[in-house]
């Protein structure tokens, strides 16, 4: 991408990037991306904080089920999220009377729906681990609940909130499918603009320039956030605190949580009901059409696309697990020099880049980099799994690193002193702790691969499409049958993804839930 953007004709021309940025349309795209991501992040944090408190600090029946249900939107394919919100606010949908279809507000709804679970999980896990005694001591000394929150709880919680907000902002800025489905021709983000420049206009230089700008912005944001995440009070104590029963003062937070739960359930419910209706009556015709090719728009039946997605997801899972486990082991081993520590930190950050860099950018990079010998993988069946494995890699690493870092090295030393070799120590010490998180990481990778759309849209072959690609192709052609088939396919894909995530949630290790 650097070569295409800065050396377009074999000579160094950094002005080519500036020329692209000076285009009026590029400025509008950049402004919309920043504006929509900031607004959606603010709303998601505002809705997620009360829900994080209720679901991670209070004890009530059904808490685990609600937590798992609110986690599902995050791993739903972005194209499914866009379709669900579109069905909710369309003229024939439950909220059609609001007139939001085709507006910027529709995109904000989709972005918040997709990312509020990130805030709930990230902040909730941190809140769950806070020691209650400082807050109780402050209250005993006469501090009001607001004073306790401001002087005790917030300083300890701020790094998790900043971390969650930064991740949500990155996900909003790179939510390709949401903007593509809900934005139409009126709104475009950096993601969709790169896709348009590449797939429709064949302006690879402009697409490369936007990709470079996006990567630089992501790196700068990660550096700034890394500094802001530092806990200002090093004496803050953490422990796995027992959840308390709800009190009367918790009523506003409980009401906000119910609001979030309803907001998450409505689009999914609208999608399911829409897939079961045709010409004003209930029918399974859209699901029966999954065995066809959608008015001959597709090279293969939709059911074959589902089989492709499952097969690719298996390959992407073992690839991301293999590399992720190696990376997690390397970045958690003790180092004896400051230089080695810095190298390890850089390595850790390098493998986190796919978390913030657009999947569209990743797919575009594969498209222009792996198109000639000795790395011509365009016709290889491994190209799509490799791309999806890289997209899932950060989640695998973030799931395994806290677990491996929490293992006391003295246990390995004790095993070695008793005669255990390296492999025996690995089996008896590390694997005994990491097997559950490893299965959870596999579930995350599998779910992410199932729904990956940005990179796959560039490199998937027409004869071997995945389900998200098929759904978008059906949406791109008019006709009630195509639209209904797309909804049915989205429901099937969402159901498979939800089952995987519910299984992952049962494998979560208490106190090690940040991802």
From TrEMBL:
It is a multi-pass membrane protein. The keyword Metal-binding does not apply. It is found in: Cell inner membrane; Cell membrane. InterPro entries: MetI-like (IPR000515), MetI-like_sf (IPR035906). Residues 30-225, 306-504 form the ABC transmembrane type-1 domain. PROSITE patterns: ABC_TM1. Its main location: membrane. Keywords: Cell inner membrane, Cell membrane, Membrane, Transmembrane, Transmembrane helix, Transport. It comes from the Bacteria. GO terms for biological process: transmembrane transport. PANTHER family: INNER MEMBRANE ABC TRANSPORTER PERMEASE PROTEIN YDCV (PTHR43357:SF4). This is Iron ABC transporter permease. The lineage of its organism: Bacteria, Bacillati, Actinomycetota, Actinomycetes, Propionibacteriales.
